[in-house]
Protein: Cytochrome P450
Organism: Natrarchaeobaculum sulfurireducens
Amino acid sequence: MSSTDPRGLQTFPAELESRSAWLEPFDWYREMRANAPVRYDPTRRTWDVFRYEDVKRVLDDDGTFSVDPRRADDYVEPERAEETLIFETMLFTDPPSHGDLRGVVDDAFEPRALGDLEPRIRDLAGDLLERADALGGPDDELDVVDAFAYPLPVIVIAELLGIPPSDRDRFKTWSDTLVEATSADDGDETAEYHERQQQAQMEMATYFLEALEDRRESPRDDLLTQIATGELEDGSRLSQEEALGTCILLLIAGNITTTNLITNAIRCFVDDVDGDGDVLEELRDDERALRTALEEALRYRSPVQAMGRVATEDVTVGGEVIESGDRVIAWLGSANRDERQFDDADTFVPDRTPNQHLGFGHGTHYCLGAPLARLEANVAFEELLARTSSIDLVDVDLEPTRSSFVYGVESLPIRYER
Ligand code: HEM
């Protein structure tokens, strides 16, 4: 990705550019934590921070480390205005305005509000699995991503927003396109990728603008109405750009991340025991064990591996001086494997407690959707386990998710017994 990437993230470091390296970046993280825990990469003009304590500090100190990519010295304004819409959202806004933007939607994501949603998520998960089972080949094989882990969060957020079922496929396509990354060296492919991104951004913007206008005129009981009509502290409403950006953020932030939580967790639960299903067995009918094991999956194969910041003043981290205006990447995925913080950090321990992982970030920008993601993943596994007596991974070459910060696989074929 170029320095104008709307999410403020950069290309992969060269060390992670190959498919196999991005599938298993953990040895490289370990090496960096030991030998260069805070390092400057001149190619990307970016600092990389790898140790737990340092990553947590970068996330917590929102005065020194801004989320606004426009504060970077080498920030280049994108050519098209739509690309900066996302900057108008909480994810890229520092306090004090951050609280205002988050406050418009945060009550919808509180566990109490989500409780009402649980039966609906259960129905959706059950339907998807029944449908996949009906379509299943002779060997009861299915691609968990395609059949289950991908559609579930898209449908849930679409329903929360108030999007009619007939528009869901378009949602999936937009959401996909917007998290996709590409290598800066890809030449033609990069141009194509930018064009696809712009097209998706435009289509989505048009769609949401109409939907927001509709909710202003005829409010309903949905999140789009909350975004269109919600009041800020001073009694004003979100600007058009802020409202639109928030819709797009909710769509992007919650989909492929939750997909990969479910998929990565299957890999953790099944991989770990050479396919004999022991971990899965322990989770069957044990709500607490399942919840604990999902937290460990968030640590062990974190769906979000990296988050970007910009230093607002000169600051020393791990003995290195980061200058004001420099870009910083906090490697959550490495922090979550830091042997200084976790015993047996490179081992998947399903009943690990305590588990202070940074999979949902930390501090001011701690994931708004964490309770929803946890609920979806829990329900997904309860429904999956209720319908299967064993699950094995099919032996195929895995393809990593095409993103420089979301970590997972494009597809995950499993073989199951009912
Ligand atoms: C923020 C991860 C699911 C909405 C974040 C951050 C992380 C994260 C690491 C912090 C970003 C930063 O510090 O810059 C995840 C993971 C998920 C997930 C791993 C799934 C397993 C969701 C869902 C939603 C959501 C389901 C909503 C539908 C958000 C929003 C923010 C955020 C709005 C910005 C919060 C703020 O800036 O105050 N997420 N997320 N996420 N996430 Fe999630």
